[in-house]
UniProtKB/TrEMBL annotation:
Classification via InterPro entries: ZrgA-like
Start-end of Low complexity biased regions: 99-108
Signal listed as a keyword: yes
Keywords: Signal
Signal peptide (from-to): 1-22
Keyword flag Transcription regulation: no
Biased composition (Basic and acidic residues): 109-123
Region spans: Disordered: 88-123
Protein's name in the database: DUF2796 domain-containing protein
Pfam families in UniProt: ZrgA
Length: 182
């Protein structure tokens, strides 16, 4: 069992290192998704520009922007709508961790510098989802509601790592199924 857990951790680490080296530049309308399939678990890590979520990349400044931020964060947290794994994997409900950066209520930002922006003047939201599964290796796909939940999202660049290999894929409308096997 220890060997399997270590192997799973290696898959996630390899995927993260690979993503860091090959990360494309911040592009509005485009998200990045890393998927790791390991014994007992499917992990999905999403990075999306705030502009794609809400149309701006800073802390909300008025009631309409605060409402848009709340809606976007709620959609990101709705793991059941965003991720529907192959029933053959026997997965339970996904656990979500959302970092909405400047969209999050109470996000601190100073008058001199809006921390919503990175060094390049752009900001992203990050979300990770963990699905505990009886047989994750049996999952042939994950259906996703990303493109329908976020109308400004046009393309999702995907990196998949499984015990059987790694590859890249791309999702765009009207696609809703992400294959987990080649």
């Amino acid at each position: 069992m220890k060997h399997l857990l270590r192997r799973g951790a290696i898959l996630v680490s390899t995927l993260a290192a690979s993503a860091a080296m090959a990360a494309p530049p911040h592009e509005h309308g485009v998200a990045r998704l890393d998927v790791a399939v390991e014994p007992g678990r499917i992990t999905l890590m999403l990075e999306m520009p705030l502009d794609t979520l809400v149309g701006f990349e800073r802390a909300p400044r008025n009631d309409a922007e605060r409402a848009a931020a709340r809606t976007a964060l709620a959609r990101l947290a709705d793991a059941a709508k965003l991720w529907r794994p192959d029933p053959a994997a026997g997965c339970g409900p996904a656990q979500a961790e959302i970092d909405g950066g400047p969209l999050a209520p109470g996000h601190a930002h100073g008058a001199d510098h809006d921390h919503a922006h990175g060094d390049d003047g752009h900001a992203d939201a990050d979300a990770s989802y963990t699905l505990e599964c009886a047989a994750a290796e049996r999952a042939a796909f994950v259906d996703t509601g990303l493109l329908e939940s976020f109308p400004r999202l046009r393309i999702v660049h995907v990196q998949v790592a499984t015990p059987k290999g790694q590859w890249k894929a791309m999702l765009s409308r009207p696609m809703t199924r992400l294959p987990l096997v080649r």
